[in-house]
Amino acid sequence: MNDFDNDEPQVIDGPSTTMVYNRQTPPRPDTLAILPMQDTVLFPELVMPVVLDRQPSIDAAQRAMRAEQPVGLVLADPTRADDGQVDGQSADIRDALYKVGTAVNILRYVTGSDGRHHLVCQGVSRFRIESYVDDERGGLVAKVRWIDEPAADGDKQVDARMTNLRNRALEAIRLMDQPSQELANAIGSIDSAALLADATAGYLGLKPKEKQQILETVELDPRLELVQSFLDYRLEVMRLSNDINKQTQERLSEHQRKAMLREQMRSIQRELGEDDSVAEEAERLREALDKAHLPEDAAEQTDRELKRLERMSESSAEYSMVRTYLELMAELPWDKLSEDAIDIAESRRILDEDHFGLDKIKRRILEHLAVHKLNPEGKAPILCFVGPPGVGKTSLGRSIARAMNREFVRAALGGVHDESEIRGHRRTYVGAMPGSIISQLRRAGTRNPVFMLDEMDKLGASAHGDPASALLEVLDPSQNDSFNDHYLGTPFDLSKVMFIATANVLDTIPGPLRDRMEVIEVPGYTREEKKQIAKRYLIDRQLEQAGLTRDQCDISDAALDDLIAGYTREAGLRNLEREIGAIVRHAAVKVAEGGAGPGTIGPEDLHGILGARRIDDEVALRTSVAGVSTGLAWTPAGGDILFVEASRSPGSGRLTITGQLGDVMKESAQAALSLVKARAESLGIDQDRIDKSDIHIHVPAGAIKKDGPSAGVALYTALVSLLTDRKVRADVAMTGEISLRGQVLPIGGVKEKTLAAHQAGIHTVMLPERNKRDEDDIPDNVRTALDIRYISGVEQAVEIALEDTPAAG
Known about the structure:
By secondary structure, the protein is of the alpha/beta class. The chain has 5 domains: 17-147, LON domain-like (Archaeosine Trna-guanine Transglycosylase, Chain: A, domain 4), CATH 2.30.130; 275-331, no CATH class; 344-521, 3-Layer(aba) Sandwich (Rossmann fold); 527-610, Helicase, Ruva Protein, domain 3 (Orthogonal Bundle); 619-801, 2-Layer Sandwich (Ribosomal Protein S5, domain 2). Helix content is 44%, strand content 18%. The strands form 7 sheets. The protein has a 5-stranded mixed β-barrel with strand order 2-4-5-6-7. Strands 9-10-13-8-14 form a 5-stranded parallel β-sheet, sandwiched between helices. A 4-stranded mixed β-sheet has the order 17-18-20-19. Helix 3 (156-174) packs antiparallel against helix 4, helix 8 (277-292) packs parallel to helix 10 and helix 18 (527-546) packs parallel to helix 20.
């Protein structure tokens, strides 16, 4: 049926029916039925479909059709209504409606199969709502004032704006996803300024509130300016969108072209009977490399290698080398970073939970973490933990990683003597591989792990280069953002890695490398600290490994004291944990045999489990004769006591030194003898006794090398004891370097030496006067237990250490 065949409107009920209205010159009544619209604004003379799904609006539209009357379409803003509803039924809907709307004629009315009512409306004129009138039928009816369109009357300003707006509207049509030539022709043929402004606003996708603003602007010049301002923004968005789409299409086209060529190449290989696994492998590697987000230089290099791989046969000798290289490049964490979660209070708790004591070390670590939290981009110093074995240097690194929420990796440098083990091998060599730095970062999976360089003092050097020199770049925050591993052939950024080094001694670390690190000394533990650590950590760890409980096996405090004093003598805890493990294994055998376990182990049980005591108190025995003194020494394993024995026999004044002493210690012995000779008269020594005797100095434990100047006081005291026949007190130990003027010079390792004296049962310790500044390093319980005497000259040492009367016989 033709929509315009009949003069009278027809209403046909039922699904998918159509109501047709024959358009005539519309009347302009004083009142209009108002249809609230949620997101639709229609301008005069434009045609637009409208959907109704509210019964009051449907009834009003049908009445208007029958009466051949226009209806008013008015935009509603739900935020302006008190109840937030736009349903045509609430009294508050009037508050949500704008005052200016458009009177429309209904050209077509269709009831769809879904029950919704579809209208095709043509705008007639603007109007303004003066007031609402009561409608007994329940719809919205308003008294309105009609708004006539103003005439341009040859206004040059309006004509200029009209020309400019038309050009911009045509440009916007061209930039649409599906440009409409009919719309462009319609816009181009409009000669009315008002219609051009309304048509442009109606067809170019403006927001409803923007359209409403234009609808309410009646004057031509402001209306044209407003439409142009909205259109300019829309144009800029469309231009940018088109540019982005164009760039995306270009990239997709290039990718599609390459994919098509690769598929063709695979087809050719299949036709030739060649295996296409190389192409498949290359495609897999390409996808992995794309996901790795390599830097530009690395991406160019891997692209070249990929092209080489595609041209190779799988049986080629180079094939596996190139593939291994590309797999490494794809697996390296080029842009993967762990997110730091530094909480100082939580970090303190973690450090206290993992380590007993070490208060100064923990404080320095917390300072380091606090600075990193406040300035994540700062160049933090490289920490180097120096201390004897078994004191927890490596576990401190693990605790730092846990406190920072980072991965932890470790590279063991002990015995490394080839630079390529740090920097990697060049790929020209068969069996080439990356260095330990890159290998561990690959294992970590992030670019900012906590990286521990373990046993740095045990690096070596050979004809293949010095690995310590390669570490200079790694540990320099100003250079390591472009670390060059020979295997990669492209820089890798190490600036986000937190490096921590460990060492037993500093002497063997090259000066330039040591200068790049902040040294933190990790001293040995006191007996009480060892006891507390064993109770809190070691026993539980060994019980867990053996599958036992504390009820089945425990070690009493007294047994721990005997275990520490009689079976281990070390700065760290490794031997102590081994002995505890032996006790737990002994208990495990009893439990496995069906018993209840030994229960609590006492001191009396240690002999039956571990055998006889291994460490005896030799101090009293060795100082029971004249000529024997007790010195204090520092070793990589912590402090230790050192016995100096001197004897004389008839001769010509010759000096013999034995006991695997180094050059420095031999010179100290010669200086001590010279000093004794110079002071023989004041010491009451007969000069003939010195001149007519050969003196032999021996330091026991002859299989162990000993060196250093700090035994000078002990050597001098032993010689004076020998030549005056006065014994050295059994409970006195000493350390200090001497000069030929009799001065006692400062030494190092004060804490370790005093700990060794305390553990050996010494009561009095003599230290150089200038080492008084190190008193704070001595643990409080050790400082309280020892009588520490500070001496500045050797005469004070003699006065404190030697007994008053000569030894009998």
